[in-house]
């Protein structure tokens, strides 16, 4: 099925950057789940596992290992069809940010973060988190290429930790978020 780029250090659609050298992977490696659309609620949304996860300065990449559909009614049947037709070809990371700083484009640079999961999605926040084309049947090169190598050492980053305060969050946005989380049956857990 080929490799996928899960994340790059490029500015994403939210004006944020997730810096690969800040990744904390210890817990993820114990449970390398591949989800559909960051859906943590429905059992069918566990669509496989992340194989051969690699990280370097260009980002995170992996080999998706998709599960088989349990039956014809399993949404995995549709996901697999979209995958096989190369219509579903993007992914996104679910992560817990631990250190960040404001960046020059009005977003945040996440310099330390814990990877929770990788999701196959129709539209990613990071426009470069895409499926790489497999080599052609005739043995030719791939349509897209990437240098893929595991990181030998991670350089420490000296970030500025800026936890959000109550004054940093627009109340209208916060209320919309609360309504959304209630709608999907989630609850907000305060720290």
Q: Tell me the helix content.
A: 10-25%
Number of helices: 3
Overall mean pLDDT: 79
What percentage of the residues does DSSP assign to strands (E)?
25-35%
Unreliable residue stretches: 134-160, 183-191
The tally of beta strands, per DSSP, is 8
Radius of gyration: 18 Å
Attribute tags:
single chain, 191 residues, eight-stranded mixed β-sheet, 8 strands, disordered C terminus
Structure description:
By secondary structure, the protein is an alpha/beta fold. Helix content is 14%, strand content 30%. The model is unreliable at 134-160 and 183-191 (pLDDT under 50). The protein starts with a strand and ends in an 8-residue tail after the last helix. The longest helix is centred in the C-terminal third of the chain and has 13 residues, at 171-183. Strands 1, 2, 3, 4, 5, 6, 7 and 8 form an eight-stranded mixed β-sheet that branches. It has helices spanning 26-30, 76-84, 171-183, and strands at residues 4-7, 17-18, 23-24, 33-36, 46-56, 59-66, 90-102, 108-121. The relative contact order is 0.23.
Summarize this structure briefly.
The protein is an alpha/beta fold and 191 residues long. Helices cover 14% and strands 30% of the residues.
Secondary structure layout plus pairing:
Blueprint: E1 4-7, E2 17-18, E3 23-24, H1 26-30, E4 33-36, E5 46-56, E6 59-66, H2 76-84, E7 90-102, E8 108-121, H3 171-183
Parallel strand pairs: 2-8, 3-8, 4-8
Antiparallel strand pairs: 1-6, 4-5, 5-6, 7-8
